[in-house]
Every structure is written in structure tokens, then in C-alpha cells.
DNA sequence: ACACCGTCGTTCGAATTTGAACAACAGGAG
DNA sequence: CTCCTGTTGTTCAAATTCGAACGACGGTGT
């Protein structure tokens, strides 16, 4: 008796087989998948609220600041940034514009490529990140990191690394 | 040298300490967290595309069908469904309306509570799910499940279960 | 029976996200 | 140099999402 399933309750009776017969998920696989989806949604929801309340930033905006801060010159090309964030280019354009209005990020054109645009962290941007980071990290720790044992964390880091890598490959069609 | 960090590159110099001094994430913790966020975004993106192309459904809509199908009578109260999906009530109202227009889901009022509304899978809804599930499951398997060893999967299922539970608690303020 | 607090689902406006279409340009083959 | 193909960032319309505000009810204590 499948509980919360990602497939119909019962595998369809063997009739015609267009693909090669579906391999459904067993209980453990299902638990992993449902856990992933649920935890992901729940976590996003919670982080969104915390950031908005404490710093007036959305999670996406916060992540933009983080990636820029981690970049060599505090600046990144739009496309590159979009890749790291895993968003659409148009979505990034929108958010960078918002952050620009807030004075947290600036745009600078690229010397070697006329089309290119650098998103760059302003001083207020750095300030804002320094201010917002502690609360954010504390919550991530409370809701994810500290809930797991060190062994679990090791496996999770490894496994999710593999999955991300696999997904990146798939991305580059 | 923190690579892709969820915090400023360098922990701020010890000055005043409003909270109790932030406990930043070490490399492994950061890897787990970044892996989680990245994998989550990438996976959602990919599944969204697959479902839309193959079945004309969004991931959210598909999940609604799944949860309804897994429910005792193929029907659930709106609030209950919203909880399982981890979505806002208003968001669910919208999506159920869409699915209703597609003829996949119907609304039925609750006998014991005049306010209550049941979302119910129609025959076409079941049909659609039977049709869409194989492709979806196959991709989940390809991109997540089969990328991990059985040991990793076990730990993941366990760990994410704990995290979800923790998040549910936090939700019930 | 009555007031009171919590729940139910919807509506509303505002914010965000996405893919497709674009215009401008880079880079290499010929 | 010149064409051709692939990139780059933006714009656009459409779809989705959320939270707050609502109106309508359920349940309990008195």
C-alpha cells in the first residue's frame, strides 16, 4: 500500500508496453524522492519568509548577492550568474534590475565584449549581505544541517554532488 | 577559500556580537547545502520541461493528480491537499480551477461541513495520470534515484525524512 | 441561545517567473 | 573580407505564485 506516491496507486496491469515497461519506485526510493520534494518546498518557504522579514530580500535576491560576493571581482557576467543560480536569463535580468533599484548591485559593460554585461556588488550590497547572512545561515543550520548527523551530512553532500553533476550534463544537450 | 558560498567570503572580523556569534558552514556543510539547492532547482527545471512537453502538465498539476490518486477516495479537502503539496491555499485554488477546466479534477462540496470543498479526480484525471506517470518516473529515476547507490539512497531517505519532520514542526507555530 | 475565536476556501492585487522573439554582436570557415 | 552560426542580454505577453483581506461557517464555553 503505497503511501504518498509519485505514481498511480497501483502499477498498471501488464498490457502493451510502449516504453520498456516502467520500473516503479520501491518504498525506499519513493521515500527519498518524496523527502526531497517536501524538504525542498518546505525549506524554500521558510527561508523566503525569514529573509523577507529580516532583510527585505527574496531568496533569489539573496543568492545573487552571495554568488557575486563569492566571485573573483565581486562581479559576474549575466549568463554565468544565471547558470550558477539556475534561473532563466530573463528572470535574472528582472532581479538584477530590482537589486539595482535597491542600490545593492550595479551593471557594468564588458570591455572585451560589447554585448556582455557585468553584474557587480556595490558597497551597500556587501553591507546588506554581511547583515543578512547570519540570520540566514542560522536558519539553514537549524532546519537542515544540525538535523543531520555528520555521517548523514557526508553522504548527502556526496550524493547531491553526484546528482547535480548528472543534471549539469543533462543540461548541456 | 570558500568556493560557491552561502555566506560572505570571509566571516566578518569579530566586533560586536548581536546574536551569539555566527557559526558559519564548514566545507562539507556548505557542499551539502549548495548541493541541495542546486539539485533541487535543476531537477525542478528538468521535470517541469518533461511534463509540459509530454503531457501538457506543470509539475504542480501533476503532483495534485498524484496526491489525489493516492488518497482513499481519490479526493481530498482543499486545505489537506495544500498541506501535502506544500503550497499556499490560494495557489491551490488557482491550480484546481485550471485542472477543472481541463476536465481532470472536479469539485464536490463536503456533506459534514458547508465550507468544505473536496477536490476529486475525474476519470480523465486518472487516465491522464496513468499516461503521464511512466515518463515522469523514468526521468526521476534517471536523474536522481539511479545516480545514487542503495546505501546513499537509504541515508538520503532517512535524512530527508528527518529534515521534513523538523520542518513540519517548525511550520506548526 | 449567544458571543467569540479559529477554520475554510476564495478573491484580489502585486510580484515574480518563464520561454519565445529580438537585435546586436563574436568567432570561425571559406 | 564576408557569410554563417552561436551568444548575449533584454523585452514582451502569459502563467503562476503568494499574502492579506474577506465572508461564511463550526465549535466551545457560558
Description:
The structure is a homodimer of 173-residue chains. Chain A is mainly alpha-helical and 173 residues long. Chain A has helices at residues 27-55, 59-70, 78-85, 89-101, 123-143, 150-171; strands at residues 75-77, 105-109, 117-121. The first copy, chain A, has a three-stranded antiparallel beta sheet. In chain A, helix 2 (59-70) crosses helix 5 (123-143) and helix 3 (78-85) crosses helix 4 (89-101). Chain A is globular and about 55 Å long. The interface between A and B is large, with 75 and 74 residues. The first copy, chain A, binds a DNA duplex (30 and 30 nucleotides) through residues 48, 58, 60, 77-79, 82, 87-95, 98, 110, 113-117.
Helix content of chain A: 55-70%
Instruction: Give the low-pLDDT segments of chain A.
Output: 1-5
Task: Give the number of helices of chain A.
Answer: 6
The sequence of SSEs of chain A as H and E is HHEHHEEHH
Please give the alpha-carbon distance between the first and last residues of chain A.
38 Å
| Structural class determined from secondary elements of chain A | mainly alpha
How much is the radius of gyration of chain A in Å?
A: 21 Å
What is the residue-averaged pLDDT of chain A? 91
Largest interface: A-B, 75 and 74 residues
Broad shape of chain A: globular
The total count of strands of chain A amounts to 3
Q: Give the assembly state of these chains.
A: homodimer
Q: In what order do the strands lie side by side in the largest sheet of chain A?
A: 1-3-2
Strand-residue proportion of chain A: 5-15%
| Largest sheet geometry of chain A | 3 strands, antiparallel
Amino acid at each position: 500500500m503505497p503511501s504518498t506516491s509519485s505514481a498511480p496507486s497501483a502499477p498498471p496491469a501488464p498490457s502493451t508496453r510502449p516504453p520498456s515497461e516502467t520500473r516503479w519506485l520501491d518504498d525506499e526510493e519513493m521515500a527519498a524522492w518524496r523527502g526531497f520534494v517536501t524538504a525542498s518546498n518546505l525549506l524554500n518557504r521558510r527561508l523566503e519568509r525569514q529573509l523577507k522579514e529580516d532583510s527585505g530580500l527574496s531568496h533569489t535576491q539573496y543568492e545573487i548577492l552571495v554568488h557575486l560576493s563569492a566571485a573573483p571581482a565581486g562581479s559576474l557576467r549575466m549568463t554565468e550568474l544565471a547558470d550558477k543560480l539556475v534561473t532563466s536569463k530573463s528572470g535574472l535580468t528582472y532581479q538584477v534590475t530590482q537589486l539595482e533599484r535597491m542600490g545593492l548591485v550595479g551593471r557594468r559593460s564588458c570591455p572585451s565584449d560589447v554585448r556582455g554585461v557585468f553584474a557587480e556588488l556595490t558597497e551597500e550590497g556587501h553591507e546588506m549581505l554581511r547583515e543578512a547572512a547570519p540570520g540566514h545561515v542560522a536558519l539553514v543550520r537549524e532546519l537542515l544541517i544540525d538535523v543531520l548527523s555528520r555521517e548523514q551530512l557526508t553522504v548527502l553532500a556526496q550524493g547531491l554532488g553526484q546528482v547535480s553533476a548528472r543534471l549539469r550534463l543533462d543540461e548541456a544537450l
